[in-house]
DNA sequence: ATGTTCTATGAAAACTTGTTCACTGTCAAG
DNA sequence: CTTGACAGTGAACAAGTTTTCATAGAACAT
């Protein structure tokens, strides 16, 4: 594989970033503007070079139409490590709220108040655009370990009407707890996902704060 | 959301499929040929309708340039429960960047509806206050399942110099991949956490985008 | 009946974009 | 010194592409 020049690499990266951000390719004149070329032909030459070197495929006659050919990497000599950020394809995101910690077990009053740290949390795919009420909670306790939600994890709660089987953040005895919602006819139960815990917690007065849609874990 | 006609839906699907297959959008004439219209204006009208109904965004004057507006899907079951938000202890959070899910440098259009959807991502506790370079990546593939990072998960990447054993986002062949970093003297390897994959991937040119600090999973 | 909306045709205008041509300068190898 | 590869300017052309204009039938409500 022939090596790319610095400018060719920059142009290729720009094109990738552009397509990642906008979902469509830049035109030759877009690239020209970005790199302050005085002529479209400068870009044209670079694109030809990129194609000749096999990393870019142009679609003849079509506008803003390219394909990326994955680069093959060599495998000898010593390793040179470069560090770089996500690039221009990064997109700014809306922010969400973090409501402190939640008890996934019996109410834990020993905790020295909610930490209420700042934290960023993800929205579920179905409501990425508009979920102004979404919030995050740190999990305390082990009542949901069978659902792979453990102490220290962060769950993302989103508003909505929970279905049977959803894991919900419910308000019980003034405490927010994380349990699976079980509907049996008109009756509603909360179920802990831990064999050591009582199976069902019957409720007649129940306040649902939202549905746990995602869980965030430290690696 | 106004409802789409059958033809509008078909055209929208075709456009999505085209972009998923070719990585660039179809021209109006491509669509015309596909649907055997006698006039480009038939397509033009449908595209106008799609934009008016809010599911497609056209870039005026630009060729093969569109954006998909993710459709919001309503979910209405019935339950007789009270719902309320997180309460006053909620705190507004800073926002982070989301770099999209990247396959060969491209976003993954095959996803249910998402084309570069917005998403919120959490920061690690160690860098909540100031991590302007942090970003998130959707995981594609199963090379890290032994580290409990699966296809569809979202990892939060933070900048920094990785230590031996860290899981890093590395740029290989123009793709961002998630692997465990192994240092052996001056040599550096990337290790997939999957028994079915080759153990070590030798590299000589390696670009590290950051260290995976957290993983986010859908429930 | 009448108007409106949706869908479509056919042609042309207007703009975007890729491509070509002629020419210049730089730099290293032969 | 010459040659050739590489990178760039400036202008123009040809094709691709979107967009507008004029027109018309079908479905449908008023």
Question: Can you characterise this structure?
Answer:
2 copies of one chain form a homodimer. Chain A has 2 domains: 6-68, Arc Repressor Mutant, subunit A (Orthogonal Bundle); 97-216, Umud Fragment, subunit A, CATH 2.10.109. Chain A is built from 3 helices and 12 strands. The first copy, chain A, has helices at 6-22, 28-34, 40-52; strands at 56-58, 66-68, 80-83, 91-92, 97-103, 135-140, 154-158, 167-172, 175-184, 187-191, 200-203, 207-218. An 8-stranded mixed β-sheet of chain A has the order 5-6-7-12-8-9-10-11, with no helix packed on it. A two-stranded antiparallel sheet of chain A has the order 1-2. In chain A, a hairpin with an 8-residue loop joins strand 10 and strand 11. In chain A, helix 1 (6-22) packs across helix 3 (40-52). The first copy, chain A, is rod-shaped. The relative contact order of chain A is 0.12. The model of chain A is unreliable at 71-132 (pLDDT under 50). At the A-B interface, helix 1, strand 2, strand 3, strand 4 and strand 5 of A face strand 2, strand 3, strand 4, strand 5 and strand 7 of B. The first copy, chain A, binds a DNA duplex (30 and 30 nucleotides) through helix 3.
List the helices and strands and how they pair.
2 copies of one chain form a homodimer.
Chain A (H helix, E strand, L loop, with lengths): L5 H17 L5 H7 L5 H13 L3 E3 L7 E3 L11 E4 L7 E2 L4 E7 L31 E6 L13 E5 L8 E6 L2 E10 L2 E5 L8 E4 L3 E12 L1
Parallel strand pairs in A: 5-6
Antiparallel strand pairs in A: 1-2, 6-7, 7-12, 8-9, 8-12, 9-10, 10-11
Chain A binds a DNA duplex (30 and 30 nucleotides) through helix 3.
């Amino acid at each position: 594989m022939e090596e790319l020049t610095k400018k060719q690499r920059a142009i290729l990266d720009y094109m990738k970033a552009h397509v990642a951000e906008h979902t469509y390719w830049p035109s030759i004149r877009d690239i020209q503007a970005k790199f302050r070329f005085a002529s479209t032909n400068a870009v044209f030459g670079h694109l030809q070079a990129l194609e000749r070197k096999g990393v870019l495929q142009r679609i003849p006659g079509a506008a803003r139409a390219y394909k990326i050919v994955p680069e093959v990497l060599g495998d000898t000599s010593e390793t040179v490590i470069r560090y770089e950020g996500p690039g221009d394809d990064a997109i700014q995101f809306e922010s969400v709220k973090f409501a402190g910690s939640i008890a996934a077990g019996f109410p834990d009053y020993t905790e020295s108040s909610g930490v209420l740290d700042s934290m960023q949390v993800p929205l579920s795919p179905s409501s990425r655009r508009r979920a102004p009420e979404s919030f995050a909670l740190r999990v305390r306790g082990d009542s949901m370990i069978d659902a792979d939600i453990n102490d220290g994890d962060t769950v993302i709660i989103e508003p909505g009407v929970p279905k049977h089987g959803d894991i919900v953040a419910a308000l019980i005895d003034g405490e927010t707890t994380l349990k699976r919602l079980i509907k049996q006819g008109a009756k509603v139960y909360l179920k802990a996902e831990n064999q050591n815990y009582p199976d069902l917690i019957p409720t007649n007065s129940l306040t649902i704060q939202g549905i746990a849609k995602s869980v965030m874990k430290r690696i």
